[in-house]
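pls design
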């Protein structure tokens, strides 16, 4: 298990995200249990074999012809057991996805995160019914397997019975033909009985052992595949922060998806810049940010750090230079301290670095209010665990990136849950970081917040469609400018009374304006409209 966990943690992200690998990992986890059971079963099989072999020796001593007959008696049961084991394994493999889905349904019903929506939307009944239907389908498959196993066992038993009758018949013939004395025949009969009685449990043990071996083979396959798809360990060393990161005609496609997530994108980012990636949902912003970090490898084109292809660089060195706040950042079920310090596990987590990271991200205020401060467990699913709000969790994620203190900071929607003041402080802070030489890559939908970016890249359907500074893009009056105006108007427009006459239209932001349009008089005078 340890090997599987270690290797899985090192596989390329694209492999980790693939359904096939996830499926194999699931099956491999059964393999880890099987590996433990195999040791116990092997001992029992060994014991059974010793008893069986002793009986066989007795029979060979009495008359050599008795041995093949005994083996003939053993064969049908062995065949039946192997057949049932194979059938059961195949069924488990076929039904694996079904079982995984059912586990997901059960988890959703028991999970605290999905609990509010389940209740308000009344979705629980739908999930329970789906779970029940799928459980019944699985039970049906179990019944089918049991019936098939019973048929195989009956057939194997009948064949074994015939073979045993043959052995006893032969014994009678041997006695009648005076090839062996009656006493020896009696001994042979006892030996045959002992051997066939042992055979039943031996067959059961071998059956389990065989099935366990098949799951164990999956464990080995998963470890092997994880080894094959692991992030390469070697490569050129990266000893300093890159002065320039460039993408040259980069295309990238997720496994099993026809449309490319990125299509021939070329751009350059220089050290100490704030770069914003903007564009509609699914445009490829997150994908692009991950390619910059070496988390994905381009299908075509290349990513260069200071002119060196990222593929040729030592990946651990590349990642060493990066701090990442993902859109779906992890809420680690650990203490507040570990939640921050996990970004750099080798660093001391009790000094100025921790306090600075917390202060820079607004997480210090959160920690102050926690019942046990930094030692509070942030996992309400455990006894004594505390829960944070969405924005407080986001501050924790920002504190992690600050604690890591890397040269390149990648923030994917970092302020979506922050209150306005914390958001403003965050954007002030990233300007400071850029002035200090850190490169900031910001993925965001808040177009007003990218006004201080040195470069803005506007993506749509995987293509880079516009780029420039904030002022340049407004001057250009293209997609970015239109979307920016739309957002700005949301702030500028006064809420309309349902009864009063319609408000006059709000004057749009002129190209080159760097602030949202001013609020109309009605708002500025505090007239909030009844
Ligand atoms: N792991 C994945 N496997 C398959 N397809 C993916 C995966 N991640 C993203 N995609 C697809 O790639 C495209 C680009 O996704 P990406 O997350 O880069 O967009 P985005 O611009 O960051 O979107 P958003 O603004 O909604 O966060 C989308 O069509 C998405 O469905």
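designed seq:
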């Amino acid at each position: 298990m340890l090997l599987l966990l270690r290797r899985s943690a090192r596989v390329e992200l694209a492999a980790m995200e693939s359904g096939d690998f996830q499926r194999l990992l699931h099956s491999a986890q059964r393999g880890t249990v099987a590996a433990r059971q195999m040791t116990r079963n092997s001992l029992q099989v060994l014991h059974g074999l010793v008893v069986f072999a002793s009986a066989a020796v007795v029979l060979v001593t009495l008359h050599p012809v008795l041995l093949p007959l005994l083996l003939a008696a053993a064969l049908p049961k062995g065949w039946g057991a192997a057949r049932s084991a194979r059938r059961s394994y195949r069924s488990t493999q076929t039904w694996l996805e079904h079982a995984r889905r059912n586990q997901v349904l059960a988890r959703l019903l028991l999970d605290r995160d999905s609990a509010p929506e389940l209740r308000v939307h009344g979705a629980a009944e739908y999930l329970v019914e789906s779970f029940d239907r799928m459980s019944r389908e699985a039970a049906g498959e179990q019944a089918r397997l049991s019936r098939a196993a019973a048929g195989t066992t009956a057939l194997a038993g009948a064949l074994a019975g015939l073979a045993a009758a043959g052995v006893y018949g032969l014994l009678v013939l041997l006695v009648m033909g005076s090839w062996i004395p009656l006493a020896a025949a009696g001994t042979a009969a006892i030996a045959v009985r002992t051997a066939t009685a042992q055979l039943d449990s031996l067959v059961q043990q071998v059956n389990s052992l065989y099935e366990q071996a098949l799951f164990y083979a999956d464990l080995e396959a998963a470890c092997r595949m994880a080894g094959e798809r692991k992030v390469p360990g070697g490569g050129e060393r990266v000893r300093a922060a890159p002065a320039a990161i460039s993408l040259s005609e980069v295309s990238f496609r997720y496994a099993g998806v026809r449309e490319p997530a990125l299509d021939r994108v070329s751009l350059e980012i220089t050290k100490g810049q704030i770069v914003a990636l903007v564009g509609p949902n699914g445009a490829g912003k997150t994908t692009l940010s991950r390619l910059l970090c070496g988390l994905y490898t381009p299908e075509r084109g290349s990513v260069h750090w200071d002119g060196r292809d990222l593929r040729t660089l030592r990946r651990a060195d590349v990642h060493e230079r990066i701090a990442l706040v993902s859109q779906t950042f992890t809420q680690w079920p650990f203490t507040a301290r570990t939640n921050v310090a996990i970004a750099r596990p080798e660093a001391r987590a009790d000094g100025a670095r921790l306090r600075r990271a917390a202060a820079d991200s607004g997480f210090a205020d959160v920690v102050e209010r926690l019942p046990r401060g930094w030692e509070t467990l942030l996992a309400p699913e455990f006894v004594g665990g505390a829960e944070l709000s969405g924005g407080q969790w986001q501050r924790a994620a920002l504190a992690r990136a600050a604690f890591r203190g890397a040269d390149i900071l990648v923030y994917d929607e970092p302020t979506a849950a922050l209150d306005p003041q914390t958001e403003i402080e965050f954007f002030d802070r990233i300007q400071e970081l850029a002035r200090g030489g850190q490169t900031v890559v910001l993925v965001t939908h808040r177009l007003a917040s990218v006004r201080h970016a040195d470069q803005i890249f506007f993506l749509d359907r995987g293509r880079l469609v516009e780029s420039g500074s904030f002022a340049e893009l407004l001057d250009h009056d293209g997609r970015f400018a239109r979307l920016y105006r739309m957002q700005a108007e949301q702030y500028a427009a006064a809420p309309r009374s349902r009864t009063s006459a319609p408000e006059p239209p709000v004057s749009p932001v002129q190209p080159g304006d760097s602030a949202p349009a001013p609020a109309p008089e009605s708002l500025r005078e505090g007239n909030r409209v009844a």
